[in-house]
Amino acid sequence: MFIHSDDITAYIPQRTPIVMISGILEVNGPITRTALHIAPDNVFVENGVLMPPGLMENMAQTAAARVGYIAKQENSPVPLGFIGAVKDLEIFELPPAGQTIETTTEITGEVFNATMVNGKVMYEGKVMAQCELKIFINPLK
């Protein structure tokens, strides 16, 4: 069950066709979970599967959704974030179009405006992809 899915673009800076989450499932401390229904016409789908750039963008947007969700709860503007580094990216399988994946990010550290996040994409109980992201948040003036 989504805690938010009506207009996910209120929580993330991306716009169609690059929106890679369908809704937020959970924001609980350092943990964020989202879902993505992979449309067959998704810009990152080739040969019926979601390609690695789509998996990477999905993990990054899950991290961004947490920041946006918290900002909205505080009635603050949603800040922009940027991927500064990707470490230990592993792609195990490519999930099929027409299905729904679930992505979890967990904050492992924060220093100034840099946040370290572990991301994991799951489909039918199996890990599809995982990595560590370093994300920089652009502080709002």
TrEMBL record:
Record InterPro entries: ApeP-like_dehydratase, HotDog_dom_sf
SUPFAM superfamilies: Thioesterase/thiol ester dehydrase-isomerase
Pfam families from the UniProt entry: ApeP-like
Name of this chain's protein: 3-hydroxyacyl-ACP dehydratase
